[in-house]
Amino acid sequence: MIHTHTKLTSQGQVSVPASVRRALGLTPGSTLEWTEEQGRIVVKRAARHNSQAVHDALFPEGAAMPAAKSLDELKQGIRQRMKRRHAGD
Question: Sign (positive/negative) of CA torsion 85, 36, 7, 26?
Answer without folding.
Answer: negative
